[in-house]
Amino acid sequence: MKAVTFADFGAPSVLKEAVVERPIPGPDDVLVRIHAAGVCYHDVLSRGGKIPGGAPNRVLGHEIAGEIAETGENVPAERKGERVVIYQRLYCGQCRYCLSGRQDLCRNSRVLGECGGGGYAEFTCAPARNAIRMPDGLDMKFAALAVCPVGTSVRATLGVAQVEPGQTVLITGAGGGLGLHQIQVVKSVNAHAIAITSSKEKAEIISQAGADEVIISPDLKFSGEVWRRTGKQGVDVVLENVVSNTFGESLRSTAQNAIVVVLGNIGAKRVEIDPGLVITRRIRIAGSGNATYKDVKIALHLLATGAVRPFIGAVLPFPRVSEGHAMMEERGVVGRVVLSGW
Ligand SMILES: [Zn+2]
Ligand SMILES: [Zn+2]
């Protein structure tokens, strides 16, 4: 089968089209013909050798939509032809986290693409339980984004923060790939979205995503403005996609008993917290990461109903994935890069 792989870590140009062996499904697996695959910033880091423990010579990509082409002997044969997305975490299904529905926390798991067998190929194999049926009529390019960008936004917004109708949610780095999807997830439950961006150019797209208010804050001193706009009440939830230069201001923007969800680690710097502020306001600080299986189901529903419209900045044929990596590295694309067609 055709695939895109890389012999060494390096610049985007190391990604080359190749012919590799088509995987054979095990008894509990399905073989999926890949129709669309999202390109994630994580792939860019993997290709550059910036993810510890990785090796070259593998097929990257964990954002996959396609149709079941073959079924293993223990999988109902009727599933052949089913249109699916692949839940990217190959979880054990037996640990206490998996059994409580938190496959994202499974410590006996690995992520498709990080161990090879990823989405930059004509086919991939996955356990049948990881192949999640997508709603009828959903575009494969949209569906490919269900597991990672949209699913991660669902996890943070509805899973960790449990945003409710009428609450006020502050989103930092709102013009980024996560922020633009989080705004839409927040709006899907009729909460109020206040978006923060340091860039005037991104205000337009943030409004298009459905933010109720956009605060352009080049110096990232936004808490005074948030305070003013919320009638000195503060926000119930902060979705922190930036953290390094924003965390103090985010904490100062909170209402009593607010939750601050940490997703971003741009700059990978330590931040200070004021314990007095955390105690007096009873602020809860929580990390968030990959989607659970359930989050992906919710993401697919939000995509199928149009509540979330993914921002796709470029659609490229699979052999041109290196161009997608270059665009992302140079920040030359707003929204996601999706691969479709050979
Ligand atoms: Zn991803
Ligand atoms: Zn597990």
Give the SSE map.
Layout: E1 2-6, E2 15-19, E3 29-39, H1 41-47, E4 63-71, E5 83-86, E6 89-90, H2 96-99, E7 110-111, E8 123-127, E9 131-133, H3 140-143, H4 146-160, E10 168-171, H5 177-188, E11 192-197, H6 203-208, E12 213-216, H7 223-229, E13 235-240, H8 247-252, E14 254-262, H9 275-281, E15 284-287, H10 293-304, E16 312-316, H11 321-329, E17 336-340
Parallel strand pairs: 10-11, 10-13, 11-12, 13-14, 14-15, 16-17
Antiparallel strand pairs: 1-2, 3-4, 3-8, 3-17, 4-5, 5-9, 6-7
Could you explain the architecture of this structure?
This protein is α/β, with parallel strands linked by helices and 342 residues long. The protein folds into two domains: 2-145 and 310-340, Quinone Oxidoreductase, Chain A, domain 1 (Alpha-Beta Complex), CATH 3.90.180; 151-287, Quinone Oxidoreductase, Chain A, domain 1, CATH 3.90.180.10. 26% of the residues lie in helices and 26% in strands. It is built from eleven helices and 17 strands. It has helices at 41-47, 96-99, 140-143, 146-160, 177-188, 203-208, 223-229, 247-252, 275-281, 293-304, 321-329; strands at 2-6, 15-19, 29-39, 63-71, 83-86, 89-90, 110-111, 123-127, 131-133, 168-171, 192-197, 213-216, 235-240, 254-262, 284-287, 312-316, 336-340. Strands 3, 4, 5, 8, 9, 16 and 17 form a seven-stranded mixed β-sheet that branches. It has a six-stranded parallel β-sheet with strand order 12-11-10-13-14-15, with helices on both faces. A two-stranded antiparallel sheet has the order 1-2. Strand 10 (168-171), helix 5 (177-188) and strand 11 (192-197) form a beta-alpha-beta unit. Helix 4 packs across helix 5 and helix 4 (146-160) packs across helix 10. The radius of gyration is 20 Å and the shape is globular. It binds zinc ion (2 copies). One zinc ion binds at residues 91-92, 94-95, 97-98, 106, 108-109.
